[in-house]
Amino acid sequence: MQSIESIADSPFSQNPNNSSSSSVNGLYGWLFECHGFWHNLALIIPSLLFALFLGFQAKKSFQKLSHGRSYIMISYYGSLWLVSLLNLAWCSLQAWECTPGKEMVWNILSLFTTSGMLFLEVSLVAFLLQGNYTSGLEALTRTFVVSGLIVGLDLLLKAIYLFGFGVPLFIDNTEHPHQVKWGLWVVHRLVLTAIYGFILFMYHSKWRERLPARPAFYKYVAIMFILNALALIACGLTGNGAGFGFWLYSATIVCYHALYLPLLYITFLADFFQEEDLHLENVYYSEMKDAGFFDTDWE
């Protein structure tokens, strides 16, 4: 753990009198300093690949969304794009956390990135509790208003603690763990763990009919429950000064920022686009059949 802590606490060395040396040190520090090479690589590569995947699929996705005319899917896809770009920036700029003078910018970027991802989480939970896909404007408005209020309150509280009380929510220090910070993260993770645990309980109770009968949703909830439970344990251990707790917390953060958005896409949007593909194939087949393209098959 000493090697991990030394990597996490390494300062950036820059020479302002030598521009070429400064650029090399900056590139080296961006990849190797602060949290370390493998930590940064584990964040940057998955988030970059997912952003590229969204970019390559953008034209097809827009066509399918316009054809499906689902307000919820269109809004959720747009939100996913915005949050993916924020998350890519957050993953790529890990060096700011350890750079003197970048604390304010890093806190703002972290605040909006985590709030955007939490908005997607809360919205998806709201869709889950509605029982199935809905496309009405009223359902979209109700879901997004509730999600916006919850995330807005969470963002406001974090901003108060960050800029009002000076609690370093997004800057880690293994040598001097901030008790208030880790206490707040314990509460945050406890709430999320309880929500996902309650949904899992619903799947095994008489209320399971109110939830979507799709295995992907159940797997998503189970994964998020385990992840938040591990993060809850990690925050509690780190707040008490345990080095393993900080390592476990860092691992959950890497998994969340690197894999959550692809998991959400597979769970919520991939089936929608696949269903649209099948629908379009049926439409094209019907049009070709009406035009007589398959008449020769019967001769």
From TrEMBL:
Sorted UniProt keywords: Membrane, Transmembrane, Transmembrane helix
Question: GO CC annotations?
Answer: membrane
**InterPro entries from the entry?**
TPRA1/CAND2/CAND8 (IPR018781)
Topology relative to the membrane, per the entry?
Multi-pass membrane protein
- Compartment list: Membrane
Just give the chief location class. Answer: membrane
Where, by residue number, does the polypeptide cross the bilayer?
37-56, 76-96, 108-129, 141-162, 182-204, 216-234, 246-270
Has keyword RNA-binding? no
- Superkingdom per UniProt: Eukaryota
PANTHER family attached to this UniProt entry = TRANSMEMBRANE PROTEIN ADIPOCYTE-ASSOCIATED 1 (PTHR15876)
Q: Which family is annotated?
A: Belongs to the UPF0359 family.
Can you say what this protein is called? Uncharacterized protein isoform 1
The species this protein was found in: Theobroma cacao (Cacao)
Its taxonomic placement starts with: Eukaryota, Viridiplantae, Streptophyta, Embryophyta, Tracheophyta
